[in-house]
């Protein structure tokens, strides 16, 4: 069965994807900064009688940790068949002139630089093997810019550009590259964005039925299971109550 590396598996979309792929028998390497959460997920997956996952505690902002993590993994696995670049976050929702520089750095270093460094390391192993699949978790924010979304939207526009760039650069090596671009998904995303203000985070999902992480995991599974001659470029997925990044029908 194929071997899959998922970044940011401790919560939300990454976690749901890990469980969904584990149920299908995929061998998983799971990463994130919070070791306790990785260990709980490890137990949950073992309880499913699925292949035991490898845990790699790593911060995608730290190049050394990524290097060490990928080296450890390639020592245990002959190859990495699939990379799911999911680790990401948004911090703040303010107009650009009121933005926080530290938050900007964290978003760009996680969502863009981290994805780049992980992808470079893994792509080199895929190129050696002559095949592979990379799935980048982008966002509707990678297709449209909404008020006060400035730097987060820029980071996801960069993910969109890098997805297209990888598809071109890896073309000679048989590596498929896709993105999944969700609208509003009820995960820890908003409580992270609003720095623990749960009341404000909950308001984001009030008055309509948001997507749940399992909805996105289903799209990722669809991409992973597509036959080798098929490359799904992007899946843009919103709740029924959301038409685009601006029009969300919230019943008051
Ligand atoms: P969550 O906050 O629930 O999960 C984010 C995951 O990313 C966690 O596992 C977290 O792990 C990991 N992560 C964050 N920073 C780092 C880091 N520096 N190094 C390693 N891992 C990190 O949010 P979602 O599941 O919603 O988000 C997953 C992806 O989906 C993100 O890229 C997000 O931008 C994108 N997305 C989310 C949408 C939504 O509405 N929820 C919509 C569109 C896209 P840990 O904290 O343990 O390091
Ligand atoms: C997350 C979706 O619209 O809240 O990427 O930015 S949005």
Description:
The chain is of the alpha/beta class and 252 residues long. The protein has one domain (3-237): NAD(P)-binding Rossmann-like Domain (Rossmann fold, 3-Layer(aba) Sandwich), CATH 3.40.50. It has eight helices and seven strands; from the N terminus they run E-H-E-H-E-H-E-H-E-H-E-H-H-H-E. The protein has a seven-stranded parallel β-sheet, sandwiched between helices. Helix 4 runs parallel beside helix 5 (150-169). The longest helix has 29 residues, at 101-129. The protein is globular.
Ligands present: NADPH dihydro-nicotinamide-adenine-dinucleotide phosphate, 2-hydroxyethylsulfonic acid
Write down the oligomeric state.
single chain
Would you identify the CATH architecture? 3-Layer(aba) Sandwich
Low-pLDDT segments, ≥5 res: none
Which strands sit side by side, in order, in the main sheet? 3-2-1-4-5-6-7
Arithmetic mean of pLDDT: 98
Distance between the termini: 48 Å
Radius of gyration computed on alpha carbons:
17 Å
Q: Characterize the largest beta sheet: strand count, sense, and whether it forms a barrel.
A: 7 strands, parallel
Element string (H = helix, E = strand): EHEHEHEHEHEHHHE
Described by the principal axes of the CA atoms, the overall outline is globular
CATH H-level homologous superfamily name? NAD(P)-binding Rossmann-like Domain
The residue fraction in helices comes out at 40-55%
Structural class: alpha/beta
Q: How much of the residues is beta strand, in percent?
A: 5-15%
Number of helices: 8
CATH topology value: Rossmann fold
Number of strands: 7
